[in-house]
Sequence to fold (643 residues):
Amino acid sequence: MIKSSLSKNKPVVLELRDVVKTYTSGNTQFNALDGVSLQIKKGEFVSITGPSGSGKSTLMHIIGLLDNPTGGQVLLEGQDISHLNENEMAKVRNVTLGFVFQQFNLLAKTSSLENAMLPLLYSDVPKSERENLALQMLTKVGLQDKLRNTPAQLSGGQQQRVAIARALVNDPKIILADEPTGNLDSKSGTEVMKLFHHLHEDEGRTIVFVTHDMDLALQAQRIIIIKDGKVEIKHA
Amino acid sequence: MLKPSLDDLIKSSVRSILKNKGRTILTSLGIIIGVTSVILLTSIGNGLQVYINQQFESLGSNSIFVVPGKVFDDKGGFNNSESARYITAKFRYQDITTLRRNLRNSLVLPQSIAQISIKQGSVIKKDITLIGVNSQYGDATNITPPTGNGRWFTKEEDDKKTPVVVMGYKIAQDLFPNGNIVGKRVNVNGKNLKVVGFNEKKGGSFGGPNLDEYLFAPIGLVQGFAGNDDIVEIIIKTPTKEEVEATKVEVKKILLKDYDEDAFSVFDSSQLLNSINAIIGTLTIALAGIAAISLVVGGIGIMNIMLVTVSERTKEIGLRKAIGAYPRAILIQFLIEAVILSCLGGFIGVALGWLGSLAINNFFPARVTFSSVAIAFGVSALVGIIFGVAPARRASKLSPIEALRYE
Fold:
């Protein structure tokens, strides 16, 4: 189910220009990414897929600003951000990105509300607004009655929804989801996918969805297939 | 501006510390023990010092002590040589007469000692120290029984060696648990003595002998019990403090006619006090220093646990970094946790040390000073910072990618 692209004329949020990522081990060099160029436009739901070892994790780290490229450029809303230092990258991640991980990565023994508030701790959002924002996001993902529950008291699907609320709380430009259904049973997985569709279609969120599962990848509006560090196919 | 704000950081640190209460207490234990022992030992040292100063003040700053043997060495410390250890010299009554003749304005108070057994009803107490003094001694050294507790013995009783006795607080209580002490008779080495007075609780003197366990009687009577006419100490009270130095010189001059220089010592309370204070001060610092070693050990314990915590929470660190925590935010977070752990230990240690010194104070002078609390607490916080830096740095340097991948 590839939706027809309605975002042709939308502004580009993130652009990679000929990005190279080289790992050196001893005398051998290995290009995990070997000249990747792509654009992610506002409001797009893009999936990135490829076999393991293809470089999709490396690509995700570059898109997620967790890593600097060895060569090429990463542009966020037209600004080159490929040479930021660690502190600047942290700042950009905090305001621009919302992460959803396969392992949920919620803080143990910490309530849903506080987990969802976590990114705001590192932001400029005033304290008085933080709880309210987290509450709104948890309501959006249908967990308004689980605010005080800790991860151990929640099902996998619910935990991932808390993680999605956490990813939304700073109103990010891009939601970056890395195998978000990988640890869930098919029913919870389907619910989480529905939530992503809702966020995309009804709220116009930009979603980058990394998976090795072609069936899931096909649910996105556009697929980028990576193989041997190169973009093989860009469905658009 | 610091992000997260300090109160957010403290809140989250307190929370993560509370998540594992058992471990928190065990981690802080080293600091708790260290701070407790520093507080206890310094409180004992301080208490002792304050107590001794009070004792000397009650004796009066115009007292000169004359004792056989060489008490001080040339540097002003206590003498530790042979001459001090084998005291053979004793004073005779003629020394008192000579001193009194030459020091007309001062009070010359001789002392003798006898070890006796005392019996009252079925209670027998052995090896009791009976101190022989004169009728002026009670007022001069502040041990005249207070109103309601009888009186000190009179000049007449003194001259006639009348069998009367003034009791210390404790021994009076032991012999007469039901009160009604004054006027009763006690049997001392087979001889009946009339109790004319007893004292309030006075406590120990000079940190050693306890005035509450002493008996006082006319000197002639005591020399009879001792079987000799030795005088073991002479206290000279000058009319004013200003005359102490000149009188000391005079006393030395008089005694040198009959005794060798090393055979006796003349000193005043300030001299003795300075020496004792110096000793106690050094001892307190040394003991506190030894106790402080356990603070360092405690700090290493905290570092150890913080390193474990960092590797246990690698994923959390990775997540925090991914969602925008810059390295310094992570560094400060873990540093604050270490400092809170050590301050918690410091706080508990201060509380325990304070309670402990209250308990000790029942049978030994102990006094907690603000400075010892401040130093112990400050050092424990410092230990937290020093030993928290390594784990916190390790945490802040983790790469978010590696940390998130960590299993």
Q: What stands out?
A: Chain B touches chain A at residues 3-5, 8, 12, 15, 19, 315-316, 318-329, 400-401, 404 (CB under 8 Å).
